Phenazine biosynthesis protein PhzF family
Amino acid sequence: MRIRIVDAFTGRPFAGNPAAVVLLDSGPFPGDDRLQRLAAEVNLSETAYARPLPESPEADWALRWFTPVTEVNLCGHATLATAHVLRSTGAAAGTVRFATRSGILTAEASADGSITLDFPTAPLTEIPVGEDVRAALGADVLSAHDTGPNVGDLLVEVADEKTVRTLAPDLAAVARLSHRGVIVTARASDEGGAYDYVSRFFGPAVGVDEDPVTGSAHTALAPLWSGRLGRDRLTGLQASARTGLVRTTLRGDRTLLTGEAVTVIDGELLAGP
């Protein structure tokens, strides 16, 4: 069985967010424990497992995502990585439909090599900023939003891009917060530059201290910044050490996420699902 490591939301190796992708045969998924153990062994922020659905009228592949410690409801970069593997290996072409915990998600490949994901828009609910959030981040907070059950994170707006880039949160305190993880964001300092807003994501409670590029977070960032900036089409920079760009298009209750991907490792899985 093959396992591939794909850098997602980047056009060059060793940037963006690496995800492991395992394409399974048709039939039931292996047991959850086996899937989780392999994800822990790989130890990337996400490992994606996909199996074909030849008899399904609604979806082409079933798709699941695991961090090193748990299964998650929604993951953007590992979905992009899976679509890239399906396209590059000839296992699928054009638009691919995935059956997931968050419903049917689609991935459409373009001639330029980019892939556009169609995800549910996160329903944002503004909530009071607790002192525990300020203390965990070590920064003042302008606003905070709950991102709903699919994403499950706390979206926090801070003063400026420099604050996002230099943030050094107390990860143990972040893990104790009531949300799965924390998305920290601010408007780009250069208003006419290559990106409109910046973000970082911290998820120590699910085994991901800092995620390099978080596709699912952009289903919350897109409605926030589209509302702030008055435009439906935006580009976000996730300002992790690896960095990555996510182009977003807000379409009501759906958000399109566009990016590139590069396969960096293609190997044989000797013991696994």
User: Anything to note?
Assistant: Helices lie at 32-42, 76-88, 131-137, 148-151, 161-166, 171-175, 218-229. The longest strand covers residues 244-251. Residues 76-88 form the longest helix (13 residues). The domain at 125-252 is CATH 3.10.310.10 (Diaminopimelate Epimerase; Chain A, domain 1).
